[in-house]
Amino acid sequence: MPNANNVKSIIKAFAIIEELKKNGSMSIGELSQALSMDKSTVHRLVNTIKDAGYITQSSESQKYENSIKLFEAGQSIIERIGINNAAKPHIESLAQATGETVNLAMRMENELIIIDKIESKSTIKVGINIGTVIPLYCTGMGKAVFAFLPLEERARVFAGLKYEKFTENTVTDPKVTAERLDGIRQQGYSMDNEEYVHGLICFGAPVFNHRSMPVAAVSISLPSLRFCSSSSGEYANLVKEAAMKISRNMGCV
Q: The whole model's pTM is what?
């Protein structure tokens, strides 16, 4: 039930920010249609948020998108939580051991956000930028977290998922996804075989907090053209070991 004390314009402003987070760059007309608001209201709110520095406008397309200021605010919270500090030495070691890109991501409800990465020094690489929000159901890190959620929580996440087919390998069948998650839970790691990005292979493992809840994930990412299936076991063991060490630093026993 809506709170009578809520300021409706602020609720609408956050709805705009959420819509831009979901869709990237959008015009006033697109935002108006997506949010069922009249254009004059959207225009007024967007300009207010823009003046505050939380939205930017492209000089070419004239469309709007969320600014880095939002990520900076989130980053300060992440730093206070301490995941970055707990993980840093271990993702650096993992990157050195594999020579590939290593990512760290934190869960935000039905998604993850990349909060740190050590990029491969190879001239050929495929990666995802810090600050990128990725889905749970078709990424190496996402599936690693998804699989280890308590069953009741997993069911709640399933109920709220909106599937998108990013590549021909993306699985959008909830039953198949559930079966895969059970397998991931048993083996302790997940693999993304070009399910989210063409040409990207990813091995992920969950990071647990002091309550043994999966709150983050670490991954090894590499181009598919450099991947050899015989290396799967090595990558799996390395990413699981790194995730376990980070989890211990987070207070998981």
A: 0.72
207 Cβ partners below 8 Å, 6+ apart?
83, 87, 104, 214, 215, 216, 217, 218, 243, 246, 247, 250
Nearest Cα neighbor of 8 from 28, 31, 37 is 37
* pLDDT tens by residue, 163-188: 999 999 999 999 999 999 999 999 99
Q: How far apart (Å, rounded) are the C-alpha atoms in residues 49 and 225? A: 43
* Residues 163, 49, 58: CA angle, nearest 5 degrees: 70
Taking the C-alpha atoms of 177, 179, 184 and 187 in order, what is their torsion angle to the nearest 10 degrees? -160
